[in-house]
């Protein structure tokens, strides 16, 4: 796996997505390499979620390409991208409230290619157990998801994504609602996943978390990339600090 570190796993080329007269994503290039944590930052309305939707397949770009492991997936629906190794968590938490924590995670384990075809129920159970353990959720496995606090539900969503053993993981504000202990665990888990060769791309608002986690940062404003590069360099870029402070981006 580590031999692949740095190889592009998910690539956007010239992506454009319009809503009516608004270019929410206005010609964007981005690469999430294997074995790295890549962060996407920018003020509200910058286009981060729209770009995520185009990468995950929940939105179709009006122009440009999405490549997953070198394969053009621009026109493939979400479930095909999942089969090719893409997983995602959402800004708005979505769990099945009446299912247990473990059953919610199992949903992710069963989306893995070949699970049904080969009747790999045992393997799906193992993947579920592994994902629960990685996120420290074993003790809550049998509890109804609907009774858990937000912090736990974020971890359940992440466990569900991991249970499919993806090669590319998209995370939309993964630390929102987590307390400091859960955030520390999340950081350790995400770094550990990158070390296994997974490509991680996260949308994040907290500069401290971005500094702690990300190898590379893409900063968006008004649908465009305003700065890209190593985390410390991008976070110190005046165009980025202005945009994050809510002021107009001019450059
Ligand atoms: N479904 C939609 N219909 C119309 N306009 C949309 C839609 N989704 C996003 N937009 C517009 O596209 C632009 C980019 O929005 P987007 O949600 O992608 O930004 P964001 O960077 O993710 O913001 P936030 O940090 O608030 O989630 C905004 O002007 C938004 O109003």
Automatic annotation (TrEMBL):
Pfam families noted in UniProt: ABC_tran
Presence of keyword Transport: yes
Highest taxon listed in the record's lineage: Bacteria
Keyword Metal-binding: no
Keywords (A to Z) from UniProt: ATP-binding, Nucleotide-binding, Transport
Molecular function terms, GO-annotated: ATP binding
The ABC transporter domain, residue ranges: 10-247
Database matches in CDD domains: ABC_Mj1267_LivG_branched (cd03219)
SMART domains for the chain: AAA
Protein name: ABC transporter ATP-binding protein
Organism (species): Kitasatospora misakiensis
